[in-house]
Design goal:
The complex is a heterodimer of chains A (about 230) and B (about 350). With about 230 residues, chain A is mainly alpha-helical. Chain A has 9 helices and no strands. In chain A, helix 1 packs antiparallel against helix 2. Chain B has about 350 residues and is an alpha/beta fold. The chains are: A mainly alpha (about 230), B alpha/beta (about 350). At the A-B interface, helix 6 and helix 7 of A face helix 2, strand 6 and helix 3 of B.
């Protein structure tokens, strides 16, 4: 029988390669699109957390409390539960609850808080002395954000984004369980449910390759941008 | 002109109140290099932060050219800060920017057009002696070079005042001297008022014309550097002066001990020469005056201050006790300060 024993991993003629290509593409664009939204949202939220921290104004305290609360809540919900929880919201937002498009809201909502915390930590790593120097030059808060915080933490933001992107890839696979499309869905449907272990293996290898590419590109970018050491 | 008037700064801690600055009154004239010296925790940095409007005094006022810093709106304060350049102990450069881009940063903030920024940065790079390093990053520079970038950056907006907050404290002695020379040069070239915050008397002596000594938030002594060096009043000032005068005081004490052991009958004295006295042959005249007198030179040094040179000489006088005493009298009669360290 084809579905038993180790040799069941290597029945390559059972693989529908065009479906595999389609699924790979879906995984890539789901990850890429959600990562772009996560990056923008994460930096904005991270900035809000950073700026509202230790500020004495009442407004700042409220902002800090609200953002912290949301970030902590959504970071704590397991992804597979979050995706189910958000089904009605997804339906209203994108008009469907299946396919790659439907996975985007849950992916963003689970990854953005995660990235926001990283962004906040990265901003806190920026040398206070440099911030003070810019203020002593007559710089505004916007100057501090755009001329110090963002450029000085770019390498850290990129390596954080790399980590986030990799966990997004595994989230897209999990989202396959509720029919999001992509490699996870293919492995589940064609691999598990049809007892086609080769499909599962190929999907795994492709995901590993995508992760490897993301990690390598991220590391190279950081290395190129980071001027802290010789 | 900078004027501190009855300035206090208090911080509320959990259960107590910390007074970081206590009733400080100072005046700094235009074009002057004014030193503020004190150990860490003396309130120097708080004073500077208030001058830059980063913190407000609890009471009293700080004026720059008649403008009370604490009363400025945040917009006015930002434009005021552009007229005050600041250099820091840890340089505070942006590592993500090249040398040129770091120097252009204050100009960007001030909204200067790109071409003028480049032009200005080029001139400043030349002024601080970093030509050829424009496109390097701070991590590729030594400490002294980083501080040169810091100075160029502080000068970018043509400030009226330059604040040096422990700017040489992280540098080795030779680099410290180079940076101090650069500050002196800039002070003369641009007629820039420089406020020099430090814990090293050496830096004050080399550059400043006036000094204020701070301890526990208070100014305990202030005046011309030359006078303070000659005649320190407070214990802490004496300590600062001695540290600079005699960085190897321990060695000297050992030498003195040894000489006393070998020549138990001699008298060890320390002479201090001021200004033109240091150019007169006082000691050789003294030897000729008293027949039995002979001497051992233990240690000698000369220091340049902005007010003139101060020399010190440690001698052991040998000869009859009368002649030894008369020699000390003689020195006093020609106005050389003579301190007896040890009588035979």
């Amino acid at each position: 029988m084809a579905n038993q024993g180790i040799q069941s991993y290597f029945q390559f003629n059972n693989v529908n390669w065009s479906a595999m290509r389609q699924a790979t593409w879906e995984t890539v664009w789901m990850t890429a699109l959600s990562m772009i939204i996560v990056a923008v949202l994460g930096i904005i939220l991270g900035l809000l957390l950073f700026e509202s921290r230790n500020k004495s104004g009442f407004g700042w305290k409220i902002i800090n409390w609200v953002v912290s609360f949301l970030v902590n809540v959504f970071r704590s919900i397991p992804f597979i539960i979050l995706i189910v929880l958000l089904l009605p919201f997804t339906k209203d937002l994108v008009g469907t609850i299946i396919g790659p498009k439907a996975a985007i809201p849950s992916l963003v909502i689970s990854a953005a808080p995660f990235y926001a915390r990283m962004v906040e930590a990265n901003f806190r790593e920026v040398d206070d002395g440099v911030i003070e120097a810019v203020k002593s030059m007559g710089g505004t808060n916007w100057d501090v954000i755009f001329k110090v915080l963002l450029p000085e933490s770019t390498p850290a933001l990129i390596s954080g984004a790399t980590v986030t992107a990799i966990s997004l890839i595994s989230y897209t696979a999990m989202a396959g369980a509720i029919g999001s499309g992509g490699l996870g869905y293919l492995a589940y449907l064609d691999g598990f449910q049809s007892n086609n272990n080769t499909v599962t293996l190929v999907a795994t290898v492709i995901i590993l390759i995508i992760v490897l590419i993301v990690q390598t590109v991220g590391d190279l970018l950081v290395k190129k941008i980071d001027k802290r050491t010789l | 002109m900078i004027r501190f008037k009855n300035v206090y700064k208090k911080y509320k801690l959990d259960k107590s109140i910390l007074t970081a600055v206590k009733d400080v009154n100072l005046e700094v004239n235009d074009g002057e290099i004014f030193g503020i010296i004190g150990y860490s925790g003396a309130g120097k940095s708080t004073l500077v932060r208030m001058l830059d409007g980063l913190e407000a005094p609890t009471s009293g006022s700080i004026e720059i050219n008649g403008k009370d810093i604490a009363k400025l709106s945040s917009k006015e304060l930002r434009s005021q800060r552009k007229k005050v350049g600041m250099i820091f102990q840890h340089f505070n450069l942006l590592w993500s920017r090249t040398i040129q881009q770091n120097i252009e940063l204050p100009l960007e903030i001030a909204g200067v057009a790109k071409e003028q920024r480049h032009e200005k940065a080029e001139k400043l790079i030349e002024l601080v002696g970093l030509k050829g390093r424009e496109n390097d990053y701070p991590s590729e520079l030594s400490g002294g070079q980083k501080q040169r970038v810091g100075i160029a950056r502080a000068l970018a907006n043509d400030p009226e005042i330059l604040i040096s907050d422990e700017a040489t404290s992280a540098l080795d002695p030779q680099t410290t001297d180079e940076i101090l020379d650069l500050l002196l040069e800039i002070n003369k070239k641009l007629n820039l008022t420089i406020l020099l915050i430090t814990h090293e008397m050496h830096a004050i002596r080399k550059t400043a014309s006036k000094v204020a000594v701070m301890q526990d938030g208070q100014v305990v002594e202030s005046g011309n550097v030359y006078d303070i060096f000659q005649n320190p009043q407070q214990e802490i000032t004496k300590r600062f002066v001695n540290e600079d005068d005699n960085p190897n005081a321990k060695d000297l004490n050992m030498t003195v001990d040894e000489i006393i052991r070998n020549y138990p009958n001699g008298m060890v004295i320390k002479l201090t020469f001021k200004g033109t006295q240091s150019q007169q042959p006082v000691v050789s005249q003294m030897i000729r005056e008293f027949d039995s007198l002979e001497l051992n030179i233990v240690e000698g040094s000369i220091h340049q201050t902005q007010g003139g040179s101060i020399g010190s000489l440690v001698l052991q006088l040998l000869g009859t006790p009368e002649d030894q005493n008369k020699a000390v009298e003689y020195l006093k009669s020609v106005n050389v300060e003579a301190e007896v360290i040890n009588r035979g």
